[in-house]
Amino acid sequence: MSIIRVVATVLVAVFALGQQTAAQSLTFSLFERYLGALRDQAGIPGMAAAIVQNGDIVWDRGFGLAKIDGAIPVTRNTPFAVNDLTQTVASSLILRRCVDSGNALLDDLLIRWSPTFPDRTATFRQVLSHTSASGFAYSRTRFSGLGRAVEECTGSPFVITMVQEVLDRFMEDAVPGADVLPGSGSAVRLLISTQKLNSYIATLQRIAVPYRVDANRRATASDYRVPLLGATDGLVASANDLARLDAALDAGAIVRRATLDEAWKRQGVSPMGLGWFVQVVGGHQVKWHFGQASGAYSSLIIKVPAEHITLILLANSDGLSAPFPLANGDVTVSPFARIFFSLLG
Q: Cβ of 21: how many Cβ atoms within 10 Å?
């Protein structure tokens, strides 16, 4: 059965169930069943999923294998490279340490804080929303320039700020990129205790193995390596880590509510707010983002603030995002997202 037929079957089932259980906001058993079917159809070797509702992790599951050789299953604490989802964390740090602190305004020129940034007319707001004078264009390279701004606002390396203000406070199975590895060349190794470095290295040894999946859904281990941590990429985390971070964000523990409200508004012609895509789906205001490393990893986070609910998906192939043009700003092109929205009602 094709992935399109699976989705159609799911939506019919969801509609029938919705007629019977209209009072329920989610039916996790049905969602789990068809999420697993989509994973199989996409050929994703392993996937972790979590749902946060009203600040609590109300459902999480591991699907498939974190490592095919040895048949090691994915669990709620399996670390994955989250790739572009690092942007959502970095944007929170920028808003917290540059904007909320009063060090900078969203419409300040970025070169004031990142002197080597190539676009001398770009503002914080434009780079956070992937816009420029010529309009919207999703650019990981351009976004990465925000890391230097965080360093100027805090007086500390970006990695250290990420560790102190995010990983240490909210995460248990997260690693700040390849910076922690011997031979990485990262000077931040000198600023992190030996005990903590050893803990990070041990976590990386448990990371879900990245796989390249061919047209016949045959998986081959990829040669992907986790990059150094920056504003765009490099964070390694479990689904439960991201769920705890999501709850903290909603609780106002990272960014002031007024700033977060601004971050979750579309910025001009961009389909994005500040570090998040922003979209209306079926009457729901949705904030979301995706991650992708070709032939290696993919990820998806979908927030529906009015319903106080968030979905987090992490995979050890690119099957969650590579088949779909998510960078254009429409999350409904993803069948994984469509199932979630259908269950919301």
A: 13
Phi, psi for residue 259 in degrees, rounded to 5: -70, -40
User: How far apart are the two ends of the chain, measured CA to CA in Å?
Assistant: 25
The answer to whether the beta carbons of residues 131 and 275 sit under 8 Å apart is: no
Can you give the pLDDT at residue 133? 87
Q: Side by side, which strands form the sheet with 80-81?
A: 80-81, 235-237, 175-176
- CA dist 55 and 314 (Å) reads 20
Contact (Cβ atoms closer than 8 angstroms) between residue 298 and residue 318: yes
> What pLDDT is recorded for position 24?
39
> Which residues, at least 6 apart from 294, have a Cβ–Cβ distance to it below 8 Å?
318, 322
Q: CB under 8 Å to 322, separation ≥6 — which residues? A: 292, 294, 298
Q: Please, what are the domains in the chain?
A: 79-277+306-316 (3.40.710.10)
Please tell me the distance from the alpha carbon of residue 187 to that of residue 266, in angstroms, as a whole number. 37
pLDDT mean by block of 10 residues, the chain; 345 residues: 44 41 56 93 97 93 97 97 97 94 94 92 96 93 94 95 96 96 92 96 97 95 96 97 96 93 92 97 95 98 95 98 97 96 81
At residue 247, what is the residue type?
A: A
pTM flag (> 0.85): yes
Both tokens of 250, joined, read 């909603």
Query: Would you list the DSSP string of 21-76?
Result: -TT-S--HHHHHHHHHHHHHHHT-SEEEEEEEETTEEEEEEEEEEEETTTTEEP-T
Which of 292, 235, 284, 247 shows the shortest CA–CA distance to 89?
235
Q: How many helices (H) and strands (E) does the chain have?
A: 12, 14
Burial 218-236 (b: 16+ CB within 10 A, else e): ebeebebebbbbbbbbbbb
Place of tokens 């240490």: 168
What is the C-alpha separation between 149 and 134, in angstroms, rounded? Answer: 23
Find where tokens 């990129």 sit.
177
Token pair 């011997």 in the structure block, residue = 182
CA-closest candidate to residue 320, choices 29, 82, 53: 82
Residues paired with 52 in a beta bridge = 57, 310
